Amino acid sequence: MANIFLGERTILDPIMNPVERTIYVLGGVGKQEDMTGWQYIRAVISSNLVMGIIVYALLYYQKFLPGNPNGLVTIKWDLLLHTTISFLTNTDQQHYLGENSFSYFSQTAALGFLMFTSAATGLAVGIAFIRGLTGRKLGNFYVDVTRAITRILLPISVIGAIALLALGVPQTLAGTLVVQTLEGGTQYIPRGPVASFEIIKMLGENGGGFFGANSAHPFENPNGASNLIETIAMICIPSSLIYTYGVFANNLKQTWLLFWMVFIIFVILVWITASGELQGNPIVNNNLAIEMPNLEGKEERFGWALTSLWAVITTATMCGAVNGMHDSLMPQGIFSTLFNMFLQIVWGGQGTGTAYLFIYLILTVFVTGLMVGRTPEFLGRKIEKREIVLASIVLLIHPIVVLIPSAIALAYPISLSGISNPGFHGISQVVYEYASAAANNGSGLEGLNDNTLWWNISSSISILVGRYVPIISIVLLADSMSHKQQVPETRGTLRTDSLIFTSITAGVTLILGVLTFFPVLALGPIAEGLKLASGS
């Protein structure tokens, strides 16, 4: 990725250079035209707006378009709006059943199209942010998006789709299969072009399933081998972006320190989740007088262990795909998944997650700089008021669009929130939905009555604000850093590539994240865990 976005030679140059030149000519894009911060932002917003309008129209008129062998009609307007916004922003939060709502053409040409462009948009913004931090110009958004698709997302998706097809994931335009059961009944088995849809869903951190059961469905994830491929696809780009930054900054030492910081937090969350699932529900175990793991909501072909690992990875990478029902996780698992979506840095979303990691790094530089009485510096550039204001906006907008609508919904538990589980778990259901929306994750604690006018509109607002306000702030921060003169390093310069500073960064990150969201964690999964432990 570093070679691609630094403009260096890659093995795909002979194939993709002519393709990209054609795209630039047709789009009127000058490959060498660097954008300012506001130009980059306008390009992001305008392109996303146009794509959103086109996809909304395609979904609205799907009954008149080809690729609809099952004769599906248009869904209601608020659900259609929510779906369009959700896929446009790389959230893919689904309040519908895919096999019963959208045609093959809609799933492929509309939603599948947005899976590529939304992932590429996030990746482009992340690269622009890295360029700005390292003193480079931001680049050209249209060039970055094009290269993200042609050089990264599309080639890997082709290989991955073929691998999934070989493992049993269907890829067909034939309609629903009607079969006679052994009892003489009739069974309707939905299918479609799933393999191509599935791989970009995982690779692009999209998470929206072709079927309502998502990756717990045997046609999306039939066996352990497909589960492994999809797990690797989910985590490969976000984790690699940390190393990409190191190449840009020519500081691999700091890269590896940050990588291991994130990895340690990730492993701890996996351990917390897995230990809860292995221990099982104490009330159920006491009633049955046996010790068994929590198998509720699990697919037998994956079990408690692979479901625990997947649950942490899918919320850590902001993918949102599920291979088991998160609503059935023990409180420890719900704690870990919520914690991931609150922090958004383990491993973070497509491109923007890496930006969040360095936002926390910049705040740590600011705090430690104040402690020692020096003007904070990062990569030889001074951190001043403008950078701190923009970084604060990025971190503060998330709790605003999670906690405020959650409070409104919980104030009306019957009319608005649609909670199916009373008590502490119901609080987790509501907060999880908005955290998932604002973090552009898309997973949910099913059981919530979320396909209503309130949920479709309110979660759409959280999705939009949670996506575009941070993007605007991130790009402006990067633009500001790119114009700063580099300050010569002295004996008093605070080095950010040391173990001590990385440990402080971890502490600041955890303190800011936990203090902001601790009340809802205490009222949700922590309280539920204590209640289960007490046997009540």
**Number of separate helices:** 19
The separation of the N and C termini measures 52 Å
Q: Count the E strands.
A: 4
Strand % is under 5%
Q: How is the main sheet built?
A: 2 strands, antiparallel
**What does the radius of gyration come to?**
23 Å
Task: Describe the global form.
Answer: globular
Enumerate the strands of the largest sheet in spatial order, edge to edge or round the barrel. 1-2
Indicate the structural class. mainly alpha
What does this structure look like?
This protein has a domain at 2-242. The relative contact order is 0.11. The protein has helices spanning 2-5, 13-27, 37-60, 77-88, 98-101, 104-133, 141-166, 194-203, 224-249, 252-279, 282-288, 303-316, 331-343, 352-372, 385-411, 413-417, 424-438, 453-482, 499-533; strands at 177-180, 186-189, 377-378, 381-382. It has 536 residues and is mainly alpha-helical. The strands form two sheets. A two-stranded antiparallel ribbon has the order 1-2. Strands 3-4 form a two-stranded antiparallel sheet.
Quick take:
By secondary structure, the protein is mainly alpha-helical. It has helices at 2-5, 13-27, 37-60, 77-88, 98-101, 104-133, 141-166, 194-203, 224-249, 252-279, 282-288, 303-316, 331-343, 352-372, 385-411, 413-417, 424-438, 453-482, 499-533; strands at 177-180, 186-189, 377-378, 381-382.
Note the main attributes of this structure.
65% helix; single chain; mainly alpha; two-stranded antiparallel ribbon; 2% strand; 19 helices; two-stranded antiparallel sheet; 536 residues
